[in-house]
From TrEMBL:
GO terms for cellular component: cytoplasm. It comes from Turicibacter bilis. CDD domains: MPP_superfamily (cd00838). One of its GO terms (molecular function) is phosphatase activity. Pfam families: Metallophos_2. This is Metallophosphoesterase. Belongs to the metallophosphoesterase superfamily. YfcE family. Residues 4-196 form the Calcineurin-like phosphoesterase domain.
Length: 248
């Protein structure tokens, strides 16, 4: 029996999208869920999304939105303060202490997961970035991690860019992006996530798969909720939800 691990990322306060993805995950016999950050911000339900992730996810790593919104050194602009007020100090304290990287063995591959980059929450890597920059994602991380392993990864999964993809690189290395649950920017305005299927904790080669899923959700509910709470940059957010295109 193969283990199934769901990987979600970049929910961005979009509760209807998260609920639809979790419903889809539940019907697929998934054994655990890992969240790669950016649970908060942009959308109207940062607090609710964070609470659901705390309950449903076995591992959560920090995204750049968790970092700059919870960091006391970040200037409290009206934009930042809106989300801080939504979350409250207890939840801000929780996200401050989140690790930035996690990893595990599965079917003979060491898999490392993070939000954007193992060395920085803000260094963005795309499918079309120079090969050298993509290969650097496999390095031992400099950011705080749940791992004790100091080996380079065989497989990397990350979020941040809101565009899912899969690449096979030199020496058998595999690179994938999980896309975005709540704010897809790949021209497909549906929630995106990934399931890894294999033998968890096994260091010997074994059967393995990566499956990409797109899930329809109630986008009009997300838009209506955003209008009710008058989120910052409301017009841009609504256009992104409608079109699946980055607007700001």
């Amino acid at each position: 029996m193969l283990d199934k691990i769901a990987i979600i990322s970049d929910i961005h306060g979009n509760l209807p999208a998260l609920e639809a993805v979790l419903k889809d995950i539940d019907r697929r016999g998934v054994s655990q869920i890992i969240c790669l950050g950016d649970m908060i911000g942009k959308g109207p339900h940062s607090k609710e999304v964070l609470e659901v992730c705390q309950i449903r996810c076995q591992r959560i790593v920090k995204g750049n939105w968790e970092d700059f919104i919870s960091d006391p050194k970040t200037e409290a602009t009206p934009f930042i303060q809106f989300y801080r007020n939504q979350l409250g100090e207890e939840r801000l304290a929780y996200i401050r202490q989140l690790p930035s990287v996690t990893g595990f063995w599965m079917s003979g591959k060491y898999i490392r997961l993070f939000h954007a980059n193992p060395h920085s929450l803000y260094d963005r890597v795309y499918a079309t970035s120079p090969l050298e920059k993509r290969l650097a994602l496999f390095e031992v991380p400099k950011l705080p991690s749940t791992e004790s392993s100091s080996k380079a990864a065989d497989m990397i999964g990350y979020g941040d860019i809101h565009e899912g993809y899969l690449q096979h690189l030199e020496q058998g290395r595999v690179l994938f992006n999980v896309g975005s649950v709540g704010n897809s920017c790949d021209s497909i305005p549906m929630a995106a996530y990934v399931i890894l299927e294999g033998h968890l904790h096994r260091r010997e080669e074994a059967d393995f798969s990566i499956q990409f899923y797109r899930v329809k959700y109630d986008r009009m509910k997300s838009i209506s909720d955003a209008m009710k709470v008058e989120i910052p940059d409301q017009e841009a957010y609504i256009n992104e939800i409608k079109t699946g295109l980055y607007c700001r």
